[in-house]
Design a protein that fits this description.
333 residues, 37% helix, 11 helices, 11 strands, Spore Coat Polysaccharide Biosynthesis Protein SpsA, Chain A, alpha/beta
């Protein structure tokens, strides 16, 4: 962490890759929720090959945000995990709020998140807000850990299997409040500094996706709890920073880095046998869905799940088509 004379109450980290307009809108929604010397916003430019960083700096200067917002340039595009780590290391705060560029923070949400962590037991290290669509409808943002069995259930599209093994369905229902979860979406999340100090940084071997689940799993293994604060509301423009989400909806092939992250996750937590089991159970579920006429797997997914963990990472900035047509390493969908 960067050294300061006085540690800030909170630092918001916003990751950018060729999305300056989204970032400026996000900053505008934060304007009344941060203040110099107490809270700040660090925008990490993930080595954008355009003029994103300059445009964001100009907006900060022109709109009088320089007292609480600044741009930090990453020398490489290392992806979502690496970019957020750059922002965390560039600050010194008691709480770090990781925030997608494709978000609009509702009034009072930062106060609520900070207050929830500061007022909670020290064991609560991570809290996610209510993510919602612009019309206020809730998005699913609280989850159970993936396991080999979850792959069978998700690929099968079978309601019966989901009801039979409810504890292995990844997405949890949207509820008013949950005190202890497996993991929450990192499209917006508040994390105590103590979590980073005890657990370490986000695993940069994940270019994008699965790193939030992995980090929460490591945090829980270190004795922390993961929570959800629905009173903190954040609009998440899903698809604004995610090729993966858009391709999933359109049943198009997902990028290699998504499956590489999946492979790394299963290998890390279940070993090589567990990774093979996850893939074979996915194939079984896919076959069941096909027999029932419910298969809607994305293009070539039956093959791409075998992607090795070290595949799909860009060799240099812009080496992949990235998280969206306009975003590489810019955020979670």
């Amino acid at each position: 962490m960067a050294e300061r004379a006085t540690k800030l109450e909170a630092t918001v980290v916003v990751l950018n890759y060729r999305t300056p307009d989204l970032v400026v809108d996000c900053l505008a929604s934060l304007e009344r929720q941060v203040s110099p010397g107490v809270r700040e916003v660090v925008v990490v430019d993930n080595c954008s090959p355009d003029d994103s960083a300059e445009r964001i700096r100009k907006a900060i200067a022109d709109r009088g945000w320089a007292g609480w917002a600044r741009v930090v340039a990453s020398p490489v595009n290392g992806g979502f995990a690496a970019g957020n780590n750059v922002g965390v290391r560039a600050a010194d705060a008691g709480i770090y709020i990781l925030l997608n560029s494709d978000t609009i923070v509702r009034p009072g949400a930062i106060d609520t998140l900070v207050g929830a962590l500061r007022g909670a037991d020290d064991r609560v290290g991570i809290i996610g807000p209510r993510l919602e669509w612009p019309d206020g409808e809730a998005q699913v943002s609280t989850f159970r850990f993936r396991s080999p069995l979850t792959e069978l259930i998700s690929a099968s599209r079978s309601g019966w299997l989901g009801r039979r093994f409810l504890g292995h369905v990844v997405a949890r229902p949207v509820v008013r409040a949950v005190d202890d979860l497996d993991w929450v979406s990192f499209a917006c999340v508040a994390i105590r500094d103590a979590v980073f100090e005890r657990v370490g940084m986000i695993d940069e071997r994940y270019f994008m996706y699965y790193e939030d689940m992995d980090f929460c799993r490591r945090a829980k293994g270190a004795g922390f709890l993961v929570g959800h604060e629905p009173a903190a509301r954040v609009v998440h423009l899903r698809g604004g920073s995610s090729e993966v989400k858009r391709n999933t909806v359109e049943r198009k092939r997902r990028p290699a880095y998504y499956y590489a992250a999946r492979s790394h996750y299963f290998h890390t937590w279940y070993g090589p046998v567990g990774r093979w089991a996850a893939n074979l159970l996915w194939i079984c579920g896919w076959g069941l869905a096909a027999c029932l006429g419910r298969s809607d797997a994305v293009e070539r997914e039956w093959r791409d799940i075998w992607t090795p963990a070290d595949a799909g990472r860009p060799q240099q900035a812009g080496g992949l088509s990235g998280q969206s047509a306009a975003v590489v390493g810019g955020g979670h969908g």
